[in-house]
Structures are given as C-alpha cells and as structure tokens.
Amino acid sequence: MRLLHPDLHILTGAYAVDAIGDDTERDRFERHLRRCKPCAGEVRGLTGTAARLGLAASRPPPPQMRGRVLAAVARTRQLPPATDRHSPRGARPGRVPPLAWAVAAASLAAILVLGVTVFRIQHQLDQARSRDRAIAAVLAAPDARVITQGTSVGGTATVVFSLARHSMIFTSAGLPPLPSGRVYELWLMGPPRVRPAGLLAAGPAGRSVPVLAGGVVRGDQVGLTVEPAGGTSQPTTTPVLVIPLPS
Amino acid sequence: MDQREVRSAGLGSGLPEGRDQDLDRLLTLVARGDESAFASLYDQLAGPVYGLVRRVVRDPAQSEEVAQEVLLEVWRAASRFDPSRGSAVTWVMTIAHRRAVDRVRSAVAAAEREQKTSRLLSARDDVAETVEASLERERVRRCLDGLTELQRESVTLAYYGGYSYREVAGLLGVALGTIKTRIRDGLIRLRDCMGVT
Known about the structure:
The complex is a heterodimer.
Chain A: H1 5-9, H2 11-16, H3 23-35, H4 37-55, H5 64-74, H6 88-91, H7 98-123, H8 125-140, E1 145-150, E2 156-162, E3 167-173, E4 182-189, E5 194-199, E6 211-214, E7 221-228, E8 241-244
Antiparallel strand pairs in A: 1-2, 2-3, 3-6, 4-5, 4-7, 7-8
Chain B: H1 3-10, H2 19-31, H3 35-57, H4 60-76, H5 88-105, H6 107-111, H7 115-130, H8 135-145, H9 149-159, H10 165-172, H11 176-194
Helix pairs in contact in B: 2-3, 3-4, 3-5, 4-5, 8-11, 9-10, 9-11, 10-11
C-alpha cells in the first residue's frame, strides 16, 4: 500500500471536483483519505474552493421549484444523526484510538451485512432455505464477529465468523471484475492445511453473493486469490487478501 | 486588506458577511426538523444549487429535477452535516456537484455522447459569461485568470463540465498523470487566491 501513496495523494484535486470517474479508484482513495491526515486536510480546502466555483455559477431557480421542494420536505422523514462516529473530531482530531475506529467500522459493516443477508434470506428462501438458515445461525451466534478489510486490488471484503459454529460468511464490494476464464476463489488457510472455501459470484451493485463456509477452526486465515474458472484445489496465485480470524 | 478580505481568509465561502455562520446555524435548525429554517436556507441556497447543477447538466428540465433532489437531500441528511469538516455552504454545494455529475455520467447521459461536445464548448464559454454578475464572480474570474491555461482548462472542464480526469485528459490530449497534477495544483492556486482555509 505504501508505494501507492504518492500516486494517490495527487488525486486530492480530482476528488474535490468529483473527477475520479472510476468507482474502484475512488474507493481506494477514500480509504487512503481515512488514514492520511494531510490528504484529508487538503481535500477539505480544495472542496471549499470548488464550492466557491459553484457559487459563481449561481442563477435564479425556476419559481415553481420552491413550492415543490417545500411540499416534498413536508412529507419527507429526515435521517437520524450518524451515531457519534465523527463527534470526537471537534474535541481533539486524531486522538481516537485506531481500535475504536475499527470497532465502529466493524459494527457498521455488521449492520450492512446483516441487512443485506436478511434481505437475501427473505428473497431466496425458496432456493436456498438451508443455506440461509445456516447464514442466519452464524449471524446469531453469540461469538459472531465481523472483520472488514481492503484487498490489494481494490474493493473491500467483509467476513462474519463464529468459531463456536465453525462457520464464516464472506461478502465483498467493489472487487475489480476479472477477465473471462478467471474467478475469485476463497480459502481457509490454517496451520494444518489450505482448504478451498468457495468461489465468488457477482451480485448486484458490485457486491459478491455471500459465501458460507464451514469447517472454520481456530487459527484459520481467510484468503482470496484469482484462479482459473471453476477454481482449483490449492491456490496458484498470490492472495489479494488475507484476513486472520482472531480467536 | 478590508474587512471582507479578512473574513474570507478565515472562512472562505465567498458569501456576504456573516452569511456563512447564519447558514451553519440554519442547517443545525433544519437538522431538528425546522421547516421554516429550511425555507430560509432554500431562499439563500436554491440559486447557487440550481446554477451549478444547470451549468453541469445543461438541460433546464433535468437541472430542475436534480436541483430539487439536492435540496430535498439537504433536508433529509441535515443531521449528517459536520461543521468541523467545512461550512454548510460547502456541504450543500458538494452534494449539488456530486448529484449533477452523477446525472451526466449516468447511462442515460452516456447514450447521448454527442452532447459532450456541447458540454465542452459551454464549459469554456460560461466561465466568461456568468462570472461578471457580482463581486464574488469577479473574484473567481480573477483567480481563474491567475492559472496557467492547462490548469484552468483542467479545473473548469472537470468542475463545470462534469468530466472525469480521464475524460479531461482525452479532451485535452494530455497524459493522465499530468491532468491529475494540473487539477490539483490549479485548485491549490485558486484556494490560495480566494483565501479558502
């Protein structure tokens, strides 16, 4: 990741004017932004500058627009505040321990995964009743934990796992599409051996269909590699992602 | 340096004296569901929002639609505004620009590729055409004049034209790395010229 930084840093300008057209590249830059304080400061200033350019384009809106917007407002419920993920900023920027951010991010991811999974459970009951029951069981396990991590090729992966149930659910978002004849393969990489854990299938909105894998044991790591279509029994390329499952 | 310059150096939205803080306060009230605060906010920001969207999207009917979405989003998401990350004006204009860009990059827009040419032409013309109306516009124009030609073209095509940096590179026949750099250093020079912090 380090080596990518100078290249990413010059994207502050393009980001501030919404000129990063590629979703994967923008995701990668946003992840970088969360870790790079000077970049975030620069983006703030450049976004303010861009807003000034916007103000210079001001022109009278169509008169009928006011009534429409106010009417829409009167029947639109507002979003609740975004918990207190951002509130420590005012007190002392940067003093939030990394773990706290990770926990906050993980709980958010858990909610998203739960939401997505519950949605799927409702809609795929007919085809995959048992599989979804198993997913629900992992999510409901008292020791279920969530880990979200970026991959080396872009996009993020989220793993929900339960050692008590020896299971994990894997989902991803924003992984770059592969050429035909290639597939993302998931692995459980343990001290005894490496086991194939499933192939990723593309789902809606750049996400992969959740994969449920059993046989998870203490000390396992979740890995992701690019393999020939159909998958292989052992990884043949360098993993683009390795997530250790803490016990 | 007059009072206005001093204020702008501190807050830098380019709006008249004190309006920045007024808008921050209004948005805080909006977050609590105050519809009359929203009406005041609308009266101050509907012009900037509509003008920017119109500049990027071009088509009046679509622009109106997008501007309405933006203003409704301001109402809906007001509680997510974080003053430590910038002013209310910047927050609103950022939403407006993003929505406008989403619209021109959507599949519908992609089907109408030929419109790109007109977007390209107007992105250039409009800078000259609309920046004359007020002191603030004058100042933006002066600052744009302080850029190199490539910086100015890169920034205005990206911002007013709604092009991605790849598209800007293609339009200007310049390497990707150069465009990324010119957008950044062009904006930095504008920031310093406008006194945005």
